[in-house]
Known about the structure:
This protein has an eight-stranded mixed beta sheet, sandwiched between helices. The two termini are 43 Å apart. Helix 1 runs parallel beside helix 3 (136-149). The protein folds into two domains: 4-175, Chitobiase, domain 2 (2-Layer Sandwich); 186-546, Neuraminidase. 8% of the residues lie in helices and 39% in strands. By secondary structure, it is mostly beta strands.
Amino acid sequence: MKKFLSLLLALTCIVSVFTILTSCKDSSTDSPEESKMLDIGEYTIIRSDRSSKDIVSAIKVFKQAIKNYTKAELTVSTDFVRNGDAVDESKPEILVGSTNRSATADTQKLIEEAEGDSNFAVRFVGNKIVITGSDDEAVMHALRYFICNYVMKSTEDNTLPIDKEFVTIEAYDPEVTILPALVTVEVPFTSIVEKNFHKWSTYGRVIELKHNGENNGVLLATSQWAGSDFPLYRSDNGGKTWSLINTVKEQLDIRVTGNWQPHLYELPCQVGEMPEGTLLLSGCSHSEGKDLSKMCIWRSYDLGKTWEEYSVVDTGGNPTNGGVWEPFLICDEDGSLVCFYSDEMEVTKENGQRLVLRVSKDGVNWSEEKYCVAPKDKKLRPGMVSVAKMGDHGYLIVYEMIGQQMGPVYYKVSKSLTEWEDYESLGTRITTANGDFTGCTPYCEWTPAGGEYGTVIAAGRHGDLSGVAGSKLFLSFDLGKTWHAIENPLPYDYKDKIDPGCNYAYSFGFFAGSDGSIYYINDVFPGHESQNYRYMTLKFAKITLDGFETYKEKEK
């Protein structure tokens, strides 16, 4: 239970308790009823000379939010003074974090006296606005609180509705993660999709129907059952419970002994004879010991109850003699179907495996290959590509780079889905400012939630040089330019100490829900033990992100 303490400072301190919602969407201004309009343009933002990188980053977001909503362009300075010099307290300032100003010290004393270990404060006193907290995370919650309750409520240029003698002290919810971009991340629930798998399961994938009328909102999920067939699960309550409705496998080719690497897709538009809303399931059929790997596509016109195998994108060799792997389907701007995949059929002295794409106007006939990532170094094997359409801001692909230590995850950005310039370059590694990284079997998705440019979420299977620990999830709020790591809501050790042969977390999936949330599916937990077998469990998590509204020009 969160505890909130509000103090109204005038001639005396009057203490009252009230509830403040942390979400910008739900919060209301909790300043006194008769707020004054403060000219925020007169203020300078002051931070400690020793502020952490996270606080420095958060202040940049804070400054930009003030500009977006009030048009005031504030200066940021540190509290540094030379030895022997006095601190100048005369100027109007916004004090962020721990500064050497007396108003900060007084406010931190109030925080220490309040109940709770994770308190932050927003205080208006004299010519100071104090935004501080018990630690860096608390300070970021305080910055977010100020934006939500004051900056976003601005109705006139350069002004905020603030009474200068007011302080709010709040204990933030420790279950809500906040990042330096001042975006909050929360996991409302997790659920089990299936817990009675074969020896192992991989390639979890999930989608939400968005082009099927009254069935919009239904979730469908699949994965790879030890190479045998593709199960299809359905949820009608947002992922809280699931039921198996069908299985899909190769039926046209008697040579095929297994089906690998499924990918689910709902057509957002008509492609050839297939209407908007048609379900597609792509995967690779293979036969051990034979020169065969075939990239197939099945389609369903009845929400997955029945399936027809109708298209072959490409064919290749078997797993020991080259092949075609890991399809990813997406439609481009003109309604063509594009299939990205890994191709190692034409390995030469100069080139190893490559990431390629083919385009189809009808879903049946496919263009020649185009390269996306094809380094000249034969020892490098880019693979397992996934694609995120970032609204109106182009496309981002992520992929592993086998041949480098831990198979780090790289990415590239392009304005065009089908044109990836400089395909011989490796791209850029996903790495945070403090060195967190991720590697192997990656996936990515984009949601418009989280800020002006939305949010890219990406991850790989591991992020530890020991090769044991599971990976964090990586978020970007600036179209891939910078990345922030959060703890994985479905934690795991990808090399299980009891049964290292199990492929926990080997290729998972993200999908952006219609409400801006991210759906995350992964094979991560052991189920029960029987005759030395440890069974996989396919789990689902809903991840919500809450950023700030995109600034819109105020009506004149």
